[in-house]
């Protein structure tokens, strides 16, 4: 199967997140807002854009934060506080916009190029899920670190 016609968005996103995908289609899926007009990626149907991958990526984010908390030996309550801070919608939106990933998102065609805050959040989570599916938990963690999620 051939790569998407707008491969530049994939390449730019890889540069920003510091990870080279073996399966470029999983990243392409992560960059699709619901309603983008793209209904498939690498043989997978994606009628809801990156929504399914974002759910998966949210769980990956929880695993990474929990793993870091567990290794630190910190008190139980710090896990929840860290997850709320790191994984908050506001933090994910801010990182998406500041990193330039917002420019890589294929927007809903009815939004006339506008990327909503919810789409930015979903895309960030979808990228974490894509990195996990492509390279495992360490790949996802490296992407999160490269984006400054834990700074």
Description of the molecule:
A two-stranded antiparallel sheet has the order 1-2. The model has no long low-confidence stretch (mean pLDDT 93). It has helices at 7-17, 24-30, 51-72, 76-86, 89-99, 117-135, 137-146; strands spanning 40-41, 44-45. With 151 residues, it is mainly alpha-helical. The longest helix has 22 residues, at 51-72. The chain is globular, with a radius of gyration of 15 Å. The protein is 60% helix and 3% strand. Strand 1 (40-41) and strand 2 (44-45) form a beta hairpin.
Features:
single chain; 151 residues; mainly alpha; 2 strands; 3% strand
What is the residue-averaged pLDDT? 93
Count every helix, treating DSSP H or I runs of 4 or more residues as helices.
7
Q: Please give the alpha-carbon distance between the first and last residues.
A: 39 Å
Work out the number of β strands. 2
- Tell me the helix content: 55-70%
Q: Return the structural class.
A: mainly alpha
What would you call the shape? globular
As residue ranges, the low-confidence spans are: none
Largest sheet data: 2 strands, antiparallel
Lay out the secondary structure.
Layout (H helix, E strand, L loop, with lengths): L6 H11 L6 H7 L9 E2 L2 E2 L5 H22 L3 H11 L2 H11 L17 H19 L1 H10 L5
Antiparallel strand pairs: 1-2
Helix pairs in contact: 2-6, 3-4, 3-6, 3-7, 5-6, 6-7
Put the structure in a nutshell.
The protein has 7 helices and 2 strands; from the N terminus they run ααββααααα. With 151 residues, it is mainly alpha-helical.
């Amino acid at each position: 199967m051939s790569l998407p016609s707008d491969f530049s968005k994939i390449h730019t996103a890889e540069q920003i997140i510091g990870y080279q995908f073996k399966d470029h289609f999983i990243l392409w899926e992560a960059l699709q807002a619901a309603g983008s007009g793209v209904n498939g990626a690498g043989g997978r149907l994606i009628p809801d854009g990156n929504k399914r991958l974002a759910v998966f990526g949210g769980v990956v984010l929880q695993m990474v934060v929990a793993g870091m908390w567990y290794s630190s030996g910190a008190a139980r309550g710090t896990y929840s506080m860290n997850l709320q801070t790191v994984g908050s919608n506001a933090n994910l939106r801010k990182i998406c916009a500041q990193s330039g990933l917002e420019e890589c998102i294929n927007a809903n065609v009815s939004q006339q190029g506008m990327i909503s805050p919810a789409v930015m959040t979903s895309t960030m989570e979808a990228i974490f899920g894509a990195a996990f599916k492509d390279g495992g938990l360490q790949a996802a963690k490296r992407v999160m670190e490269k984006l400054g999620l834990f700074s």
